[in-house]
């Protein structure tokens, strides 16, 4: 079998069975993302999805993530109209939480609709900056499985 890489998700190692390709969700909005098939050690099949970074024009695929890393997962915290999608709260009420958190294998990114993206070396660093419990964030990520 050809090695297309691996992805760690929810405590499992998923072996990609193909190269990632530009995909679309088929809705009227035409949301685009990268996806690839994968399989775990027990033979269960998965579809892995990587959201595309803001500003990616589809031309230079090296631009899909700033650190050149593979997207691991994205957690959406709020809808466009501000409705909470998770139970996550900051220990500091004065901190404005991001609308989404994206975890790459080389960085974590907090996305803010009005002020742009803030990048952190690790998910722990991001959670510390926002007063979030890293274990609760990880549980929320795991609940978002593809």
Mean pLDDT: 77
Share of residues in helices: 10-25%
Task: Measure the end-to-end span.
Answer: 23 Å
Beta-sheet strand percentage? 25-35%
Count of separate DSSP helical elements: 2
Order of helices and strands: EEEEEEEEEHH
Oligomeric state: single chain
What structural class do the secondary elements suggest?
mainly beta
- Give a quick account of the main beta sheet: strands, pairing sense, barrel closure: 5 strands, antiparallel
Strand runs, count? 9
Overall body shape: globular
Q: What this model shows, in words?
A:
β1 (6-9) and β2 (12-16) form a beta hairpin. The two termini are 23 Å apart. Strands 1, 2, 3, 4 and 5 form a 5-stranded antiparallel beta sheet that branches. Strands 6-7-8-9 form a 4-stranded antiparallel beta sheet. The mean pLDDT is 77. It has 146 residues and is mainly beta. The chain has helices spanning 123-130, 134-143, and strands at 6-9, 12-16, 21-24, 32-39, 45-51, 71-76, 100-104, 108-112, 116-120.
Layout of strands and helices, then pairs:
Layout: E1 6-9, E2 12-16, E3 21-24, E4 32-39, E5 45-51, E6 71-76, E7 100-104, E8 108-112, E9 116-120, H1 123-130, H2 134-143
Task: Provide a quick synopsis of the model.
With 146 residues, this protein is mainly beta. It has helices at residues 123-130, 134-143, and strands at 6-9, 12-16, 21-24, 32-39, 45-51, 71-76, 100-104, 108-112, 116-120.
Keywords:
146 residues, single chain, mainly beta
